[in-house]
Design a protein that fits this description.
This protein is mainly alpha-helical. It contains five helices and three strands.
């Protein structure tokens, strides 16, 4: 397997565990809540977070995407359990894509356009790093803020949270 793809799979696996902890906290009875009229609902954002690895991997399978023709619709997850199942399927698709990358495909140019205008052109691995992973982390962080606004205990993402300190000594 391509070393860069192997490294991305290792990161995907580690970050999936973190993302799962965040998604597990999404309350089923608040999926329609949204912090602002321009924001996604909690259910839409959670589903988007769950879908990102698989969706971006499917995009990376092509040589380009035209954003002028892409519908920017965000369906809401039906329940926390369904969102977690979506995450599992999404990560499986991403792992399969990354496992099948060869050097030529990984270093090949991937383009984002808007009609006839090129937004950017980067190596496919760069696209996966930027649009898949960094995009995933951005929206997961947004989801953590939603949880805080709903007064849901925020799980550890990196290190500790205001609600959890996993490395603190247990006092009996």
């Amino acid at each position: 397997m391509l070393p860069a793809a192997k490294a991305l799979i290792a990161e995907l696996d580690a970050e999936t565990a973190t993302t799962r902890r965040v998604l597990e906290r999404v309350p089923d009875d608040r999926l329609t809540w949204q912090p602002h009229a321009k924001s996604m609902t909690l259910g839409q954002l959670a589903q988007h977070v769950a879908l990102i690895p698989g969706n971006i991997s499917r995009m990376a399978a092509h040589d380009s995407i035209d954003m002028a023709t892409r519908k920017m619709e965000y369906p809401a997850g039906e329940s926390t359990a369904a969102i977690l199942a979506t995450l599992d399927a999404s990560v499986t698709a991403a792992r399969a894509f990354l496992s099948g990358l060869d050097e030529a495909r990984a270093s090949g140019t991937w383009r984002m356009t808007f009609g006839d205008r090129e937004i950017f052109a980067i190596p496919r691995l760069g696209m996966l790093r930027t649009i898949c992973f960094n995009h995933w982390y951005h929206h997961r962080g947004e989801l953590v803020v939603y949880l805080r606004l709903l007064d849901v205990p925020v799980p550890v993402v990196y290190g500790k949270s205001a609600d959890e300190i996993p490395f603190a000594a247990v006092v009996a």
